[in-house]
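Study both lines:
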Amino acid sequence: MLVVLHLFALFLLVLLGFYVFVADPRRRSHQTFAIFIAFLALWTVKDQIFWNFYEAEFGADWWVAVSFITALLMQYALAIFAWVFPENSRTPRVKAAVLFAPGLVLIPAALFGLLWRHVEMDNGHFSIELAPLAYVFVAYIYFVFFYGTSVLFKKYRQFRGTQMGQQVGAVLWAVLITGLLKTAANIILPYFDQYWLLPYSSIFVLPGVVIYAYAISNFSLFSLQTALDQFRLFPLTYKTALSIASVAVISFALFQIPIAWWSFRNGMDAEAWRKYLVFSVISALVPNLILLLLVVRSISRPLQRITVAAVDVTNGKYGTEVDLRKSNDEIGLLANSFNEMSRKMAEDIEKLGAMNEQLMRADRLAAMGTLAAGVAHEVNNPLASISSMIQIMREEHGGDSEAVEQLEMISSQIERIKNVTQGLTNFARTRPAARSRINVRDVVDSAFRLAEYDGDFRGLDTSITLADDLPQIFADPDQLQQVILNLLLNAKDAMPNGGSISVNGIADQRSVMLTITDTGVGMDDAAIGNAFDPFFTTKPPGKGTGLGLAVCYGIVTSHGGTIEIGRNADGGTEVTITLPRYDAD
C-alpha cells in the first residue's frame, strides 16, 4: 500500500510541476515552483527507496543526510518564491547570499554525517540519535521557512482585495498546511520516539502543493474553462511529453516485462543478466524509432515547410501559404499566423501599388493640367481672330455658294477645335468645389434627366437602384453631376446597338458606393489601366478627346473618394465611385 501511495504522490508532483512550468516557462514564480516540485519529488523517491526497499548493507545514514539537505533546499525555494511572486520580480542577490550562506557549512555537515550520532533500521523499526548540530540545522530550516512566510504575508497585506492578494493568501495557506503536517511527522512525533508517520511525510505535502499550484495558475487549475482552453491550444511540449510517456509505458508493458520474465525465470545468474541486457537494448530500438518518427512528423516536417514558405516570401512570392493540416499547438498557430501575415503582406503590397499608381496618375494630371491651360490660352486667341475673319468673308462672298460652303467647313473645324480647347479648359480649371450636404439620389436623378436629352440615350434600358437608407455626402453637386453624366454618356457610346445601363447605390459605416454598369463592348486590361490618363480614349477619331474620365478622376479624388473601372459579368464596363459619407468619423 505504501508503495502505491508513494508512486501516486510522485506522479501527482511531476504532473503538477510540469503543468505549471509549461503554462509560463519564462515566469520566475513558475520556474521556482518547478524547482520546489523537483525537491519534493527527490524527497518522495528517497522515501520510496528507503521505506519500501530498505537494504541493511546500505544503512540509513544516506536517507537521513538526503532528508536534511532536501528539507533545506525546499525552504530555499520557498524564500526565492516569496521574493519573486506575484510581481515576477528579480531575486535580491545580496539578501539571497546572506540568507543562504549558512548552508555552505550545514550541507557538508549533513553529507559527512555530523548531524547524528547513531541511526539504524532494525526489523522495520527506525531510530536515530541526533547531534547538537542537527538542532542548529533544524532551527536554520525553520528560520528560512518563517522568513519566506513573513515576506509572503507582507505581500498579502500589500495586495489585499485584489486578484494577486487572493493568490498570495492561498499560497500562505498552502505553506502553513504543509509546514504543520511536515512538522508533526518529521519533528514532533520523532522527538517522542514516534516514527510511524515518517514514511507518509512525503504524502502529507500533497494538499499544500495542490493549493500552491492552484494559486499560481490564477485559480484556473483543473477548471472546466482551463481544460477547454488547453483542448483548443494543446502545447507542443504537452504533446511531446505525452508521446514520450505513452511510448515508454507501452514499450515497458510490451517488451521489458516479457524480456525480464523470460531472462530471469530460471534465476538471476550471469547468463540471465546477459539475456536481459542484450534483448533490452534490442527492444529499446523500437520505441526510439517510434519517438523519432513522432518528432519528425510533429515538429521537423512542419518547420521545414514553414521555412520553405518563408524563403519564398523573402524571394518576392508574396501570398505564399504553408500547406499543413490543422493542429492546436504552437506550430499550428505559427503556420496560421504565417499564412495570415503572408496574405496581408500580398494585400498591402497590392494596395501600395494601387496607391503608387494613383500618385503617379495625380502627378500626370497636374502636369497635363498646367500644359492644357497654356495650350487652351494660346489656341483660343488665334481661333477668335479666324472666326471673325470667316464671318467677314461670309458677308463679302454671300453670293458665291462654293465659297460659302468652304467657309462653313472651316467654321465647323474651328468649332471642333473650340470643343477640344473647352475640354482642356475644364480639365485645367482649379476652382474650389462648392460643397454642401447633398443627397446622392437627387444628383443621380438630375444626371439622368440631362442624359435623356440625348436621343440615343433615351433608347437604352436604364434602371436606378439606390438603398432607401442611403446617407448624405459632403460634395459639390454640380461636379458630382458632371461625373455621373460623363459616365452615363460614355456607357451610351459603348452601346451603339442598344443595351442597358444600371446605377446601384449602397453604403457602409464610412462610405457611399455608386456602381454604374453597362452591357457595352467593355474594355481590355490595357484600356482599364490607362483609362484615367489624359487624352487616352477608346473611341474612334473625332468622337472623343480622352479628357472626360481624367476630369472625373480629378473631381472624385478631390472629394476624398476613389473611382475604379472593371469588367462585369456581361462583358461590359463597371465603374465604382466611393465617397465618404457625411456622418463618418
Q: What stands out?
A: The chain has four domains: 2-227, 233-315, 318-430, 431-580.
